Amino acid sequence: MKNIFLMLLFISSYNYSQELNCNVIVNYQNVPVKNRDLLVDFKNVVENYMNTTRFTNVNWDGDKIDCSLNIFFTSAGSDVDYGAQIVVVSQRPVYQSTRNSALLTINDGAWSFKYEVGQSMYANLDAFDPLTSILDFYALIIIGFDMDTWEEFGGTPYFNKAFDIVNLASPTNYKNGWLPSNKIYSRWGLVSDALNEKYAAFRSAIFDYHYGIDIFAQNKEVGQAKIVELIDVLYDLYERTGLVKSVFIQTFFNAKYGEITDHLKGYSDRTIFTKLKNIDPSHAGRYDLSTP
Question: Nearest to residue 197, comparing CAs of 141, 158, 237, 138?
Answer without folding.
Answer: 237
